[in-house]
Amino acid sequence: MNYEGPVIRPPSEANSLILQVTFGCSHNRCTFCPAYKGRRFRIKGIEEIRHDIDEASAYDPGTRRVFLADGDALIIPQPKLLEILDHLNRCFPALQRIGTYANVKGILRKSITDLKELKARKLGIIYLGIESGDEETLAAVHKGTTCDGIAEASARVKDAGIKLSVTVLLGVGGRERSLMHARETGRLLTRVQPDYVGALTLMLVPGAPLYDAALSGSFILPFPLELVRELKIMIEESDLNHCLFFSNHASNYFPLRARLPRDKEASLQLLDTVLNQPDRAVLTPEHLRAL
């Protein structure tokens, strides 16, 4: 397998074959993300991709799940993407699901018919970074889309019958817009109705423009309990049906896993208990947090 640079995948794809079909991210302007800075985006050649699939098939022909890396494999033109998925299905007869990251631009370049063609070839889940439902925050972090764009792209994925897993980013609005960010993100989640929501906490990392903004004082990260409060408000303001909401990523100060709407009230009560603690004993220590 020919991997180039750091290869990032969702936690839920830990047991999947990671097939790198692109290098980097086609957008690569988000101020909070250092992952692909300094890397020019490109799509791998079809022969190189075929070679990797053939090599992986020879090693483990019983592979059941494949994740297409890097940042947004869905940006690949439809004919080439169909060719990749067809070859995966030929080489892995036990294949059950293919997953990929995507951004709004990549999704909206696909028609519902295109997405259904991918679904028929076992593209079963798309991971979409929402980050925030606050328009001002989306613009500030150079997300490259709006709430309407996010909602339209999400609807297209769901209409095609593909599972939608979204991420939201605690703290990305800074202290100044913390409450607005949390409230509007909960409301956007209601519009989107994803199958899964993963809440991560912003970590300021060298190489990301937001890190430099924090050093200069133009961006102030909320305190840990303020980040937990954001999580509570997001859940409080959302009205989700048949959704698994979790904040068990290593970046978070408090892990939570809830099936919504069933566990909504219990989750809010638990978060109230955490927020009313006099110290940080219930929060994850800094040395255990990571990207």
- Give the end-to-end Cα distance, rounded to a whole number of Å: 25 Å
Structural class: alpha/beta
Number of domains: 1
Q: Largest sheet, if any?
A: 8 strands, mixed
Output the CATH topology.
TIM Barrel
Helical stretch tally:
10
Low-pLDDT residue spans: none
Alpha carbon gyration radius: 19 Å
Report the mean per-residue pLDDT as an integer. 95
Highest CATH level, the class: Alpha Beta
The portion of residues assigned to helices is 25-40%
CATH superfamily descriptor: Aldolase class I
Strand and helix order: EEEHEHEHHEHHEHEHHEEH
Tell me what the structure shows.
- It is a single chain.
- The chain has a single domain, classed as Aldolase class I (TIM Barrel, Alpha-Beta Barrel).
- 38% of the residues lie in helices and 17% in strands.
- With 291 residues, it is an alpha/beta fold.
- β4, α2 and β5 form a beta-alpha-beta unit.
- It has ten helices and ten strands.
- The protein has an eight-stranded mixed sheet. A two-stranded antiparallel ribbon has the order 2-3.
- α1 runs parallel beside α2, α7 packs parallel to α9 and α9 packs antiparallel against α10.
